[in-house]
Amino acid sequence: MHFGDRLAAAVAARESQIVLGLDPDPQKLWPEAVAAATGDTPVARAASAVAAHCVAAIDAAGPACVAIKPQHACFERLGADGQVALRRTVEHAQAAGLIVLSDAKRGDIDVSAKAYAQALLGATPTPFGDVEGLGADAITANPYLGADTLAPLIAIARERGRGVIVLVRTSNPGAAELQDQRLETGETVWERVAGIVALLGAESLGPDSGLADVGAVTGATVPEHLVRLRELMPHTPFLLPGVGAQGGRVEDLAPAFAPGRAAGLVTASRGIVNAYDQAGGTPAAAARAEAERLRALAWSLGG
Amino acid sequence: MHFGDRLAAAVAARESQIVLGLDPDPQKLWPEAVAAATGDTPVARAASAVAAHCVAAIDAAGPACVAIKPQHACFERLGADGQVALRRTVEHAQAAGLIVLSDAKRGDIDVSAKAYAQALLGATPTPFGDVEGLGADAITANPYLGADTLAPLIAIARERGRGVIVLVRTSNPGAAELQDQRLETGETVWERVAGIVALLGAESLGPDSGLADVGAVTGATVPEHLVRLRELMPHTPFLLPGVGAQGGRVEDLAPAFAPGRAAGLVTASRGIVNAYDQAGGTPAAAARAEAERLRALAWSLGG
Asked: Is A148 in Cβ contact with B109 (below 8 Å)?
């Protein structure tokens, strides 16, 4: 099944466009997860606590969400044990019916891009048998190296009904420094990248949804660009980070939803997982309430 | 000790500017490494073979090199076992006196960039004790998200005498698509990035070498840009991929070496490790001979 159609079906079935960002910091885990840590070494204990934290957050907030977005950096810092925790998180989310958008932001030359695709979306042939990768439903990717480095990611994703979500205009303050530069053609760098993303996605639209399997990261912190981004990428699912801790507001995101609700996925990480800092109560109850608040708010904007 | 000074001292001591790229493909490992595989599962066997392959390549070609450049994608596709293989490769190289340039091409918003820095260059505080990262001497990084996302990598690298090597003009054909675009200011995108890299590096030059701890990836496939790149980044170590399989020639790289030999590191991966395909003989002997040929050729260009 085409990734765009899978996404649209999941959004409709769950009545949610919310993506639960999982950026586990071992110093800021839910207390129940720290208490449940097992293992003989600091890294094993930390990784088991991280996995327990992610599982608990999925159990709490997942019912109000359509997907999770694990931040690879947070798992990589725990080495091999962190990879086990990441895989457990992915499997738990998928078992709960959630789509997994792996936030890896990979980008490399063709042969290495193919290896990343095998690692995250596909499988690797070896003399000892095929080795299955992480099994993410989609990954984020960086366009700086050019479309020839995105193509191997997209090829393997497409074969398996999975997706690739390309950074177009990110949510951080420094994004302006390069992405907002104006080219001599009059376009900004992000407009040029948006054009590349639209072309790559137009090769294969979901027959039911009309959505592409190549998405775009478009920061929720710059809603003033959303109309133009949507114009340049009419069939592209947008992943909208930056709500909450980074200052973005769901209310400002309606242009992203124009082709349908599944075309605008709103991601919140610390805003959901650390909601108990503000709201009080248990971490799980606060996370569930905040995810549900965001879900209802985004859904109310229509599509 | 400052990374620029470490690099210069290692290049002088080893009389080499050659970086051994390690991009292990499980289907194209040295036969001795496949024969030595151990483990109960396909992934464990593949990862043990990958580690044996990398160790053998380091033993063979390492004496003619100053550094290794492991390609993270190739290890990531073997999951947790791949991380064990990567760590064994890093430790073996460092024990042999080689610098480790981790080719991870990471780039993410500030809090995630810090997590990548902890993973690859630093350590992660946890309630169970600090968890040491991979211990690379430098990592490659992607500038698309802007300087505020490079800063956390550089901060942690600098604290520990390590480095960050930023993609400026890459070696792949599609690099032209975005990096060669001309801005309305008249600069190309890569010139703009080069300016950012030069500024970030100028904050801290090695007292002995005058080299920065922020390097640049500048493809050996576009030697016509090297004079301009050097002008924009006078103190920046250049990592020059693309020699061999991608068509770059060592003879064309002299402008990179202008501030001193350590300012131009020539990386070759398949050209060294698969030299036996062309040259015959054992993989080890062919790799050693090719690395030594490249070493002597680059060294003869002066600095």
From this structure: no
